[in-house]
Design brief:
Length: 188
């Protein structure tokens, strides 16, 4: 099967990455658990709006905030295990200034994929299973790919969507994919 996997908030820990960098740079004490909403990150900082936040995140010392993110526990091991039997398709949304840092991050972490898409229209990349954390992406993928399995990686900034599978950790995701694969191999 083709597995469409998002990066930030799913494989890469964007929240810890920007919080750690922000705290170090500004002597702040923002806590990771304070990031409870999608797109309101500037409300936790001194930035006036999200444009100012992204201006800051876009570059310091030649790289953006996306270059040095940690990997969520279990993500790479699970992707490597799934890659044995399935296609891992990375589908992420990135601003132009983050493309090279994202490609370098994928290479540094040896993410097992032969296919990477950086697009806002994730649903246009055909997959059998999608895993994302962005509320608008989950809804759009589910609406536009009704025959695919859409999974919401449960995070504080997203909510359940009818017809979408909730995934709380990588163990749940691999079990789901294995069950789907076993079901698709049943004789009809």
């Amino acid at each position: 099967m083709r597995l469409g996997i998002d990066l930030d908030g799913v494989v890469a820990d964007f929240t810890s990455g920007w919080v750690d960098r922000y705290n170090a740079e500004f002597g702040a004490e923002v806590r990771v658990d304070e990031a409870q909403v999608w797109g309101g990150l500037h409300d936790l900082t001194h930035f006036s709006d999200m444009n100012a936040f992204w201006d800051w995140a876009s570059g310091h010392g030649g790289s953006s905030v996306f270059r040095h993110l940690d990997v969520y526990p279990g993500a790479l091991d699970t992707l490597r295990q799934l890659y044995i039997e399935h296609e891992i398709v990375i589908i992420t949304t990135k601003p132009d200034w983050a493309i090279h840092d994202t490609l370098a991050w994928l290479a540094d972490h040896r993410v097992p994929t032969r296919e990477v898409h950086m697009t806002e229209d994730k649903w246009r990349v055909e997959c059998d299973v999608y895993l994302d954390d962005a509320p608008h992406q989950i809804e759009t993928i589910h609406r536009n790919r009704p025959h695919a399995t859409t999974c919401r990686f449960v995070r504080p900034w997203n909510r359940p969507v009818t017809g979408v599978r909730d995934i709380r950790d990588w163990g749940e995701f691999i079990a789901l994919v294995e069950n789907l694969a076993a079901g698709s191999q049943q004789p009809s």
